[in-house]
Amino acid sequence: MSSWPEYAEIRFADYGEEIVASEERTDMERGPSKMRALNSRVMKNVYASVQFRSAADAEAFEEWYLRDVGRVGWFTMEHPRTGQPISARFPQGIGRLMPLNTQFRFSKRDLVLEYMR
């Protein structure tokens, strides 16, 4: 399994987390819906921007995503907030590369990571 590259820095200014609902709702004729948990573990999404300090780092990240991760594979990384090791993947790809200054000396990608909690 591939590991998160060291040159890809997660920016905390654009950071967020969300637990993906994993329950079944049954509507009732009267009163509130009944709910039950579907899984003992839940998926959690991390919304983040990844910053690159050079055009070469941005290109290397794209190569890592295409070759090592294979676009749909899992990889290991340190959780950005807790520091715990997790296995994650990209459910929506790696997002759009956006320059933060000229000639992509600094750039970023907004992306979503998902992992089992």
Q: Count the helices. How many? A: 1
Tell me what portion of residues adopts beta-strand conformation. over 45%
Number of strands: 9
Helix content: 10-25%
What about the largest sheet? 7 strands, mixed
- Intertermini distance: 19 Å
Rounded Rg: 18 Å
Write down the overall mean pLDDT. Answer: 92
* Class inferred from helices and paired strands: mainly beta
Ranges with pLDDT <50 over ≥5 residues?
A: none
Number of domains: 1
Strand and helix order: EEEEEHEEEE
- Principal-axes shape call: elongated
Q: How do you describe this structure in short?
A:
By secondary structure, this protein is mainly β. It has one helix at 55-68, and strands spanning 2-3, 9-19, 23-26, 34-37, 43-52, 75-78, 85-89, 97-99, 107-116. The chain has one domain.
Descriptive account of the structure:
Strand 6 and strand 7 (85-89) form a beta hairpin. It is elongated, with a radius of gyration of 18 Å. The model has no long low-confidence stretch (mean pLDDT 92). By secondary structure, the protein is mainly beta. The strands form 2 sheets. Strands 1, 2, 5, 6, 7, 8 and 9 form a 7-stranded mixed sheet that branches. A two-stranded antiparallel sheet has the order 3-4. It has one domain. The chain has one helix at 55-68, and strands spanning 2-3, 9-19, 23-26, 34-37, 43-52, 75-78, 85-89, 97-99, 107-116. The longest helix is centred in the middle third of the chain and has 14 residues, at 55-68. It has 1 helix and 9 strands, in the order βββββαββββ.
